[in-house]
């Protein structure tokens, strides 16, 4: 895609700090470096986000994520790593080429964090099961 910054990185039109490349995937350091070693893993085939990936491209992307994530974690002796994917602006996606963030974690006080809210006391078991059934009905076989 012509206007896509990540496609331009893949094509070599824009420099990047590449850490991995093969025929399907490209991985490079995120300029923002939320924590030391913050890496992006992207499919070479353009797709807006995970919701637009075909099954084969998704499989090829996620086949490589563990080995790249383990290398990032080991390189900086991180205690853990967040593996994140944001889809659409409301979910904090800012570049509209599918990408996976690998964010090494060093302590609870490093520069990355979020807290999940537990809403389990706001719905009944019946409503909970209805939610599951509604989603399940929409999954193609």
UniProtKB/TrEMBL annotation:
<feature type="domain" description="HIT">
    <location>
        <begin position="5"/>
        <end position="114"/>
    </location>
</feature>
<feature type="short sequence motif" description="Histidine triad motif">
    <location>
        <begin position="97"/>
        <end position="101"/>
    </location>
</feature>
<dbReference type="InterPro" id="IPR001310">
    <property type="entry name" value="Histidine_triad_HIT"/>
</dbReference>
<dbReference type="InterPro" id="IPR039384">
    <property type="entry name" value="HINT"/>
</dbReference>
<feature type="active site" description="Tele-AMP-histidine intermediate">
    <location>
        <position position="99"/>
    </location>
</feature>
<dbReference type="GO" id="GO:0003824">
    <property type="term" value="F:catalytic activity"/>
</dbReference>
<dbReference type="InterPro" id="IPR036265">
    <property type="entry name" value="HIT-like_sf"/>
</dbReference>
<dbReference type="InterPro" id="IPR011146">
    <property type="entry name" value="HIT-like"/>
</dbReference>
<dbReference type="Pfam" id="PF01230">
    <property type="entry name" value="HIT"/>
</dbReference>
<dbReference type="GO" id="GO:0009117">
    <property type="term" value="P:nucleotide metabolic process"/>
</dbReference>
<protein>
    <recommendedName>
        <fullName>HIT domain-containing protein</fullName>
    </recommendedName>
</protein>
């Amino acid at each position: 895609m012509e206007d896509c910054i990540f496609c331009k990185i893949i094509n070599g039109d824009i420099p990047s700090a590449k850490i991995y490349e093969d025929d399907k995937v490209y991985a490079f350091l995120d300029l923002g470096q939320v924590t030391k070693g913050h890496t992006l893993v992207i499919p070479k085939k353009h797709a807006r986000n995970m919701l637009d990936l075909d099954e084969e491209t998704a499989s090829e992307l996620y086949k490589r994520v563990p080995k790249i994530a383990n290398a990032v974690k080991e390189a900086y002796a991180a205690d853990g790593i967040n593996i994140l994917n944001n889809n659409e602006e409301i979910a904090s996606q800012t570049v509209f080429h599918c990408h996976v963030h690998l964010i090494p974690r060093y302590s609870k006080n490093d520069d990355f964090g979020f807290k999940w809210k537990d809403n389990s006391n706001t719905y009944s078991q019946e409503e909970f099961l209805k939610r599951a059934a509604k989603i399940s009905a929409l999954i193609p076989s």
